[in-house]
Every structure is written in C-alpha cells, then in structure tokens.
Amino acid sequence: xxxxxxxxxxxxxxxxxxxxxxxxxxxxxxxxxxxxxxxxxxxxxxxxxxxxxxxxxxxxxxxxxxxxxxxxxxxxxxxxxxxxxxxxxxxxxxxxxxxxxxxxxxxxxxxxxxxxxxxxxxxxxxxxxxxxxxxxxxxxxxxxxxxxxxxxxxxxxxxxxxxxxxxxxxxxxxxxxxxxxxxxxxxxxxxxxxxxxxxxxxxxxxxxxxxxxxxxxxxxxxxxxxxxxxxxxxxxxxxxxxxxxxxxxxxxxxxxxxxxxxxxxxxxxxxxxxxxxxxxxxxxxxxxxxxxxxxxxxxxxxxxxxxxxxxxxxxxxxxxxxxxxxxxxxxxxxxxxxxxxxxxxxxxxxxxxxxxxxxxxxxxxxxxxxxxxxxxxxxxxxxxxxxxxxxxxxxxxxxxxxxxxxxxxxxxxxxxxxxxxxxxxxxxxxxxxxxxxxxxxxxxxxxxxxxxxxxxxxxxxxxxxxxxxxxxxxxxxxxxxxxxxxxxxxxxxxxxxxxxxxxxxxxxxxxxxxxxxxxxxxxxxxxxxxxxxxxxxxxxxxxxxxxxxxxxxxxxxxxxxxxxxxxxxxxxxxxxxxxxxxxxxxxxxxxxxxxxxxxxxxxxxxxxxxxxxxxxxxxxxxxxxxxxxxxxxxxxxxxxxxxxxxxxxxxxxxxxxxxxxxxxxxxxxxxxxxxxxxxxxxxxxxxxxxxxxxxxxxxxxxxxxxxxxxxxxxxxxxxxxxxxxxxxxxxxxxxxxxxxxxxxxxxxxxxxxxxxxxxxxxxxxxxxxxxxxxxxxxxxxxxxxxxxxxxxxxxxxxxxxxxxxxxxxxxxxxxxxxxxxxxxxxxxxxxxxxxxxxxxxxxxxxxxxxxxxxxxxxxxxxxxxxxxxxxxxxxxxxxxxxxxxxxxxxxxxxxxxxxxxxxxxxxxxxxxxxxxxxxxxxxxxxxxxxxxxxxxxxxxxxxxxxxxx
Length: 949
Description:
Blueprint: H1 3-13, E1 69-70, E2 77-78, E3 86-90, H2 91-97, E4 112-115, E5 124-127, E6 130-131, E7 143-147, E8 150-152, E9 165-172, E10 186-192, E11 200-208, E12 212-224, E13 228-239, E14 243-245, E15 250-252, E16 255-269, E17 272-285, E18 291-294, E19 298-299, E20 310-311, H3 317-324, E21 339-340, E22 350-364, E23 369-382, E24 395-397, E25 404-420, E26 425-442, E27 444-446, H4 450-462, H5 490-495, H6 502-513, E28 523-541, E29 546-564, H7 571-588, H8 594-612, E30 625-645, E31 648-659, E32 662-663, E33 687-688, E34 691-703, E35 707-719, E36 721-726, E37 731-739, E38 761-763, E39 765-776, E40 782-795, E41 799-800, E42 826-834, E43 844-854, E44 857-858, E45 868-869, E46 872-882, E47 888-895, E48 903-908, H9 917-923, E49 926-927, E50 931-935, E51 940-948
Parallel strand pairs: 7-10, 14-21
Antiparallel strand pairs: 1-2, 3-9, 4-5, 5-6, 7-8, 9-10, 11-12, 11-51, 12-13, 13-16, 14-15, 16-17, 17-22, 18-50, 19-20, 19-49, 22-23, 23-25, 24-27, 25-26, 26-28, 28-29, 29-30, 30-31, 31-34, 32-33, 34-35, 35-39, 36-37, 37-38, 37-41, 39-40, 40-42, 42-43, 43-46, 44-45, 46-47, 47-51, 48-50
Helix pairs in contact: 3-4, 4-6, 4-8, 6-7, 6-8, 7-8
C-alpha cells in the first residue's frame, strides 16, 4: 500500500486506538518502588530499582499518563527528557493488551517485530527492520533482551511467561554504553515488579477457546519490617494447539507451561539494598507445525528469454512423487485450515527449561552510586522434530535426548555513577564480564522413505514421465515392460539417456535409494564465549537547556569452537568416490556435446548432493574440529540535546554499534560443495565476522498535560550484516557488505564463482526512516494515541558475502537493491482505553482496543516471492468491570479479534524440490520447490477473573 493510504487509515483509527504505553492507569498493588509513581502507575523500578531516588527534573513541567519514568539511561528520568528513541510500556498497558511475553509488544511498538519459526526457542526480534533469524543458535541477536538487568542469551527466552511486570522499555538503535551486553539494533529491557513491605497479592484466572487455561498469582510482603521483603510470582498455562495433525490425530502448537519467580529485597540501611531473584520455567509443547502454501511447479515458457514464467499445467513432479509414496497435503489450497500431516509417530513434544538466579547490590558510596549485578542462567530446549513437515518420512530428529540446544551463562556487571561540578556532569562508568557455554546436539537422520524419495526425485528431474518411476524398486526405476517405451522397462528407458555411462549412473541411483535411517547418531557442537567490556556514559550540562552526552565502550570477545561427530552415513563416501570416476568418464566420453556433458555432470552432481546433503557423512567421524578467535571493538555514542522550552526536547545523535562474530553451527559449510571431503582445517569455514553499524538520529519530544508528540528520524548503515538463510537443506550464514566498485551484476547471477570484490568493502544494509508517536488525554479516564513507523531497510547494490569480499551465495541473488526480509515499510499501531466510573461506589468499567496495521513484506531471508506476506491489520479488544481500587475485575477479551490470516515465516520445505519462481524468471529451467510456512495465531478469546488484596 502507499504511504498515503496508511496515514489516512491511521487517522481513521485514531478514534479507536493508540499505543497502550500512553494510557496506564494506577495499579492498586503496593510496590516498593524507590521512585514515586506517576500518573501512569509506572514507577522507575528497573535494573537500578534499589537506588535512592534521583531527581527526575528540577524544573516543574506538565505531567500526563504517557510521560512515565524510565531508566533507559540507567538514570531515573521522565520519558520526555530522554534524548533517545525509546518506547516504554507499563504494567497496566501490558495487561490490557493481553501481553504475557514480549511477542504482544508488537501491538504497542510500531518499530518492533517478533516472530518464531521451527521452535519458540528460535524467536527473532527486529527493530527498524533489523534483526537476526533465530534458527541458528551460533548467531547472537541484533536485538538484545534483558530481564531485570540480566542479558538473556537468545531472544527465545523472552517468549516465556514473565509474571507481573513493572514495565518494558524498547530502545531503538545501537546500544552498549549503558549496560552489560552490547546490541547492534536495539534492546528490549523487561523490568519485573519488586517486593513490597506491605503485604498483598493478586490472582488471575483465564479460560478461553482452544481450552485455554491460564492461572497466575503472586504474593508479596515483609519478613522483617522495612528491612527484608519477599515476592513470589507463578503462572500456569495450558491450551490446545491451533493446528490439527490428520495423521497422528493430535493438535499442534499447544501450550503446556509453568513459571515461578521468587525474590528477596534486603535493605539494611538507606544506603544499601540487595535484590535476589530466582526463576524457573518449564514448557512441554508440540511446536511448531507448518502448512503448505505453494506446491506449484514453475516453468520457463520462452527458454532463452528472461523475465517470464508459467505454471506447469501437468502439476508439480515432486509433489506427484510424494503422493505416489503416500504423502497427503491437507492444507493445499487452503493453508489457513491449519491442517498438517506429520509422519506417523513423529508428532513430537519438546521440553524447554529456563532457569537461573541473580543478585543485585546497590550502595550509596557518598561520592557515587554503586550497582553490581551477578547472574547465572541455564537454558535447554529439546529439538526432536519431523523436519520435513509432512507425513512422508524424509527426515527427522528422534525424540531420544540427542537433539537440543543448551546455554550455560555467567555474567557480572558493575556500574558506578555520580555527579561533579555542581551537578554539571552526570557520569557513569562500568565493566562487564560474561562466560557463555553453548552446546548444540544434533541427531538429524534421513527418514525411512528418504532413499526412495530422493531417487524418484532424480528420475523425475531427468524426465517427468510417471511410468518410469517405481518407488518400491531400486533406484525408483520400474522393471516391468511398458508399451509406451517400446516394451522396455522404466530402468532400461531411463538408462538409455546415459549411453556407456548408464551402468555406473544407475548404480549410483540404486545406492541413493538405499539411504534410509542414516545420519547423525549424535553430533555435538560447542561454542564457548568469553566477553569483557568497559563502558562509560556521561552527560554534561552546558547550560540549563543544552546538554552533551558522550559514551564509549570497548568490547573484547573470545570464542572457541569444537565439534564431535557420530554419523553413520557410509553411503556418502562411496557416492563421492564413484562420482569422481563418473565425472572423469563424462569428460573423456567421445561424441558428447558440451551441453550433454553439462547435463550429465548435473545429474551425477545431483545424486551425490542428495546422498551427502549438509555434509552428512561418516567421514566426519575421524575429524577433530577446533577453531577459535579473539576480537576487540570500540563502539560509542554522542548526543546533543536542547530544551528550548520546558515541554520540548530536541536532540541529534551518532552511535556506533557492534555485534560479535561467531560460528555457523551447521556442518554444511565445512566444504564448498558436497564433492569435497571435510578436513580439520575446514572448521574455519564455519566462522563469520562481527557486525558493525553507524547510526545517525535526530528527534523531537513535546509533552504537555494533555498531549505528547515524539518524532525521530534515523539512518543506520550495517557492515558485515549477519544473514542466516535456510535454503531447503541447510543454513547459509554470510556477512552482507557491498563492494565500492561495480560487480556488473555478478551478485545477481546463479554462479558461486563470480562476484568477488577487488575494491573496498563497504556497508551492505541501510535502514532509514522516521517514527511518530502521539498521545492525547482529553479528559480523565480517556487516553488516545498513535504510533507510525516508516522504515526503508534495504540491501545495497554490488553485494558480497564477507569482510574480505567473497562472492555472494547464489541462493541470495535477489538481495541486491531490495528490501530486507521482515521489514515492512509502513507500520501503524494504535490503542484507546476508557475507564469510566460506574456509579459512585468506586466501580469502574474498562473499554480497550488496540490495532496494528502493517504493509507488505517478505518473510524469507532469500526474498523468494513465494514467501511474501501481504499487508494486514490486527486488532485486540478487552471490556470489563473493576471493583473499588481494582480489588476485583471481570474481563472479556479477544486477541486477533478480526481473525486475520497471516504468516510468520515462509520457508523452503526441506528436500522437497529445487528452484523457485524468481529463479525461473531470471535463469530459466524448472522451479519445483515446495514451500511451507509457520502461521501466526488465529483469533482467541476468553474470560479473565482478577483479584487483588
């Protein structure tokens, strides 16, 4: 859609909605917050929540429900006084929106997008169109998640239930000079409720469709009066899945989880406080199902003429092969019927455990305030799965305990801040250390029907004639005479294509058809990371109106990689050896044209590829893969802010951000292709470079008693952007940059041998645009506001795949000059809350709506057309009655009220074909890749009962 249409629709919906962070109402739960609550009921309880109060502003100014106190700069300041782009969402707003984890934040923050793929452990968060695909745990997220000041290793941990939250802050743009872990695109800072010295508690009970049951409760109070307080929060959730597996007769994407968090707050004196937190989460859920969204075969109607395609009227030969072997496609033609088909007995449930503890000490040293945060966490998520997402048994990870990802993380952060020169200089210095041990265990095997399927795929690729194929015969080649072949069998007719090379090629196809139940028994990847950093963030007040902020950070990263393999695919080395002989035979065969040799090479190469795909080979077992690196990087920020009036803030900033390099924990990159055997030296091929960004921003913030308005314009330039792409068989990780000299289209061709840069390597991704946030508070109990983000996040031209200028992978030929995936240009968020008095007894009503409108975007990292998501609109609603002081409440609610159908991520169905619409248009040939997708949740609704005491 055009920008005009979005702005008009936003104007039309503003009467309905506004970002919920501008409409918090006071909470009745007594909380031990150290900064007084404001009109929003959101205090400055943060990672620094035990600090003595910091003066919010010496100059009186209008205060409204939208101008809450935040600690984004590690100082307690009103949102309107902070010269960075930040959205802050309080507890009441989160409750009204139905948020139980960070996913629902997207309804309230237009620059934020969160999605999950094959598992909720694979969640990905994006800010301003920039993020990291979460499927590959070797990559850290561009958007860092902190909970109570503690960095969470990957975004997926933020999809756990959070219990009762004080607020969530979303900081946009590079971060690193204010807290422990650095981030190149932004941070999500989650701040939970503190213990209170006044006894109290709450309980919530919810029942909804899909048999959704959620029970949450909490208790807080004193242990020693004014010295020691406790808090305990717990959540239990259970819900049926919204997919139905027609083979295993079970639902999928269900909920079955619980969470508990305990806290102690110890304040022996007014100058010292200690906060101890321990939490535990357990999930046992079947996730994630995927539906078929495109099974068509695309062909080139005019060979040699680029730019067109047609749908094969005879159907998709890959789908026909699968159907001949018993495959069903229950979602074909109607993916939103949410019917899936997993292999019988492979509808696996996985257990995820996430637990840890932290201790925060705050001490007033007189000349400065000391903050220390020590934490240890463990996270383990099982990975058993039917990886082909269909009932044909092509590939799987068995539920035997040998597939999981596990993090052990220790972190220590120390900050010291104070003031000098009669409060002209507000200084902060800090240090950070973390040790993260990551283990990824994998037991990926080819399924019991893979061999027959792969052999039939080769036969169908050479010729779509179904009479040639017999999935039950060696090589998928029929042995019964067929009249259409002049009485020859399918095997004889097929072999006639290869002349004197028929015997070895047919032997290779026979060997391929025997590839069943082979692969990883247990292969294990280890990535051990040590990180330390020193940072400073200082605000100098030149005058009462003009301030200059300077921040600097040095980060040192060390990562060590090791892998052990136990793989029983002995057919791969045999195919590689035979294939080498056949390649030599093709080269020396008399009477073949160049085109015939190329076609034969392609067939033999396809056989070897399907046998050894992803470097699944017993040759790995003898390897001792070890690698490591150390890197250091400076990052920082500079800000000039000016307040011409007490209600207006202007600012301009520059920031440099950094995200560490690492290892692609997917063995496929060990060799350039499947024809080469990996060696110990291959480990370095898995390494990718650090990601850096230069960011520029200007902004304005205006706040009055009944109106707020914020605008920010930004430009961000990412070099070595870490892109993770699934190509249907394995993950490709490349650092996307651009070459300052023309590649003459070599980054958009189908060759891996062209497109290297001989000039200088520059940034490869650019994100620029502006953000608007407005809030209107016309009368008591009514709040209306609006958020709009326009962001143009796109790849540069002349792209390369590394800091050294290596050629871009041919699978990424669409990237050059196009928009980044999951980066809609236009996003509007809006919400409204009306809490009228119902009589004079203290009973109030609740009427709440929020909405998010998003323009078209592509959900796949490779930008294939089949993965495009059209623009859509989401709406949530909540109505209720609340007792005096909100001691009780009854609420009816709906999420995705309009039952909008949309997908999270589209992807190539594993092993199921090759080639897509764009490749056919650009290069000709046939595109028979089948595409599947992870869908977003349908409409949910229910009733919630609440009580507080």
